[in-house]
Amino acid sequence: MYNANTYLSATELLARFKATTLDPVDYLETVLATAHSQQSSVNCAAGIFADEARARARESSRRYRAGQARALEGVPVIIKEETAVEGWPRPMASLVFKDRIAAENHPIVDKLLEAGAIPYFQATNPEFCVLGHTWSKMYGVTGNPWSLAHSCGGSSGGSGAALAAGVAPLATGSDMAGSIRIPSSLCGVYGFKPPFGRLACTPTDEYFVQAVEGPMARTFDDLVLMQNVLAGPHPKSYTTLPYTPLPTTYGDLSGMRIAYSPAFGHPALAADVHRNLMQALDGLRSRGAVVEQVTLDWDLERINQVLLDGLRAIFVDEFMLDIPPTETDKLCSYVKFLHDKALDKKVSIMPSAILTQQLHREMQAKVWGQGYSAFVCATMLSTDLAADQDPVLEPMLKLDGHDVDAYLGWVLTPAFNLLNRYPVLAAPTGLSDIGVPTGMQIVANAYDDETVFRVASNHALAGTSRLFIDQFPPAA
Fold first, then answer.
1. For residue range 168-222, what is the model confidence (pLDDT) as tens digits?
2. Which of 285, 324, 433, 448 is the most exposed place for a label (fewest CB within 10 A)?
């Protein structure tokens, strides 16, 4: 079984390190043991970099003794494989690029290192991060620590699974169609999709506004801690906004009006997902919020298709066409499918811009313009999803008697990648009937990050979902 000490929060670790009741060097060895042991079951490691981590842990220990500790001094951190760390492999889970090594750090990795964090665990993602589950020919299947046969989500599934497996308290993720929010919800952790411009992006990704990096953590307090380290300008980025750190404590929700739509009118929402969402909303009411249902009957199939076409137009197709024709047999089925689409038909970004404006105007008319400060919905329709589910071999799923597209039809996240200036925070809402966590999305108007954190803080305080306090995942 996993060592419960590996489930200490970053906030608690920092307090213990400062009090000298725990040493970063010793704690690193604890999580290293967990990191290696989980690989035979969960399989969420793309790489484990113990030697350089040990050197950083020794430096952190020295800094605590000298009174020079930084904001995340000595805290182990999980890094999604897609997120570049200088000198680490970065194949994007593809056998085509199996020998690629990152030449420089992603800006958020620079910020983690400057804050004294210890990146040591590289988490799996699907090939080129274009799947809502986490499996590839390179890394195999990553299971969900709560139920190994079920999906941990994607594309930041390795990060979510590693958090749930006790590998570290903090992780990086990225999100272009739900890739932070989906695994956060399925793995029972918190994740934040910031509005574009809040975090520095990879240089040359400045026009790829649907996709952002963001923090993932097991506790709300840790999510705030990590976001305050990651956010704000970086010398490599010219699009990042000035940043005022988020508060670390929040008042209750007295006077706040919150709107919700469980699944935008989709009939396939599972009863257990709905039940847990309603309990979470009752928790917000207990904290003083006025919570009311609004009608948003969105055409999710159209939203998904328009987002995918936009992603193809601005990034995916060009990337796919860079793959040598002699190498396409190495691609996973879901990437080969996108590769063939890139050859078959050109698409445009303009439908994304038009639909985004329509969605924002409806949100303005029914939510923001009606005095609601936040909006809440489920993250996905169901948790009953196989870890190795292949949307090419099985293009349709049967959910609650309804056929849905197996690629994106089961998630409720893509609209907010079109509405990419909206902050969205994924929070756990409990366990489904099959023992897999469920989650909700907390949304606010453009760049109003503090509101989603205030709502999430009160959700955490309401205690309607205390997964890592009440129990740990059963996987060993």
1. 999 999 999 999 999 999 999 999 999 999 999 998 999 999 999 999 999 999 9
2. 324
Q: Which of 107, 37, 34, 44 is nearest to 76 (CA)?
A: 34
Residue 192 corresponds to which amino acid? F
Query: What's the CATH code, domain 4-303+348-470?
Result: 3.90.1300.10
Q: What are phi and psi of 86, to 5 degrees?
A: -50, 125
Domain boundaries, the chain: 4-303+348-470
Residues 457, 459: Cα–Cα separation, whole Å? 5
Pull the structure tokens for residue 440: 């909700």
Rg over alpha carbons for the chain, rounded to the nearest Å, is: 21
**H or E, element range at 47:** strand 45-48
What is the tens place of the pLDDT at every residue in 355-384? 999 999 999 999 999 999 999 999 999 999
Per DSSP bridges, beta strands 257-260 and 396-399 are: unpaired
Range name among 149-158, 310-319, 421-430, 449-458 with the lowest pLDDT average? 310-319
If you average pLDDT over residues 462-471, what whole number do you get?
79
pTM: 0.98
Least confident of 16-20, 105-109, 465-469: 465-469
Q: Are 307 and 354 in contact (CB under 8 A)?
A: no
Best CA proximity match to 57, nearest among 122, 119, 121, 123 = 119
Of 263, 260, 300, 265, the closest CA to residue 418 belongs to 300
SS3 424: strand
At residue 364, the 3 state secondary structure works out as helix
Q: What are the residues whose beta carbons fall under 8 Å from the beta carbon of 379, sequence distance 6 or more?
A: 178, 181, 182, 184, 185, 411, 412, 413, 426, 438, 439, 440, 441
Nearest alpha-carbon partner for 471 in 164, 257, 179, 38: 164
Q: Residue 1 pLDDT more than 70?
A: no
